[in-house]
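Design a sequence for this backbone.
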C-alpha cells in the first residue's frame, strides 16, 4: 500500500506515532509497513516498564541504545511502533502497553482484535 494513503485501525489516515524517538519500520515517525516488514511494526504503543522488561525477558532488548541502528533505547512513556505479535504476546501475559489508535496501522487487525486495542487506547497527545 502507498504510504501516503495508509489507514489506521479507525479507518482514517494514519497519523505519525513518534519523531522523538524516531520510530517506524522506515524510521519516518509512522507505523507504516510493507512486505519486507516481517515483524509487522504496526502498533503505536506508549511503552511501559512492564512491557520493556517483558520484552527483555524474551530476548527483545528495546532498552539498550544501538547507535549503529540510530536507536537510542526506549524509556517508559516513549511511543514506538511495536511488532503486532510482540504486543499480542504482552496482551496475553497481562502487560500490553497503551496504544494510540490514530497512529496504529490498519494491518494490526490481522494480528489482534479491535476490542483489545480499544481497551488499551490512550489519547494521541501531540508530539512535543
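Sequence:
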Amino acid at each position: 500500500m502507498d504510504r501516503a494513503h495508509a489507514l489506521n485501525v479507525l479507518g482514517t489516515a494514519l497519523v505519525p506515532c513518534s519523531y522523538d524517538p524516531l520510530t517506524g519500520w522506515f524510521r519516518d515517525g509512522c507505523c507504516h509497513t510493507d512486505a519486507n516488514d516481517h515483524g509487522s511494526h504496526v502498533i503505536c504503543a506508549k511503552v511501559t516498564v512492564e512491557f520493556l522488561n517483558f520484552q527483555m525477558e524474551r530476548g527483545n532488548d528495546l532498552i539498550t541504545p544501538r547507535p549503529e541502528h540510530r536507536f537510542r533505547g526506549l524509556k517508559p512513556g516513549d511511543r514506538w511502533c511495536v511488532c503486532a505479535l510482540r504486543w499480542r504476546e504482552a496482551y496475553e501475559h497481562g502487560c500490553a502497553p497503551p496504544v494510540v489508535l490514530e497512529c496504529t496501522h490498519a494491518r494490526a487487525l490481522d494480528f489482534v482484535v479491535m476490542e483489545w486495542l480499544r481497551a488499551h487506547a490512550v489519547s494521541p497527545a501531540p508530539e512535543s
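The radius of gyration is 13 Å.
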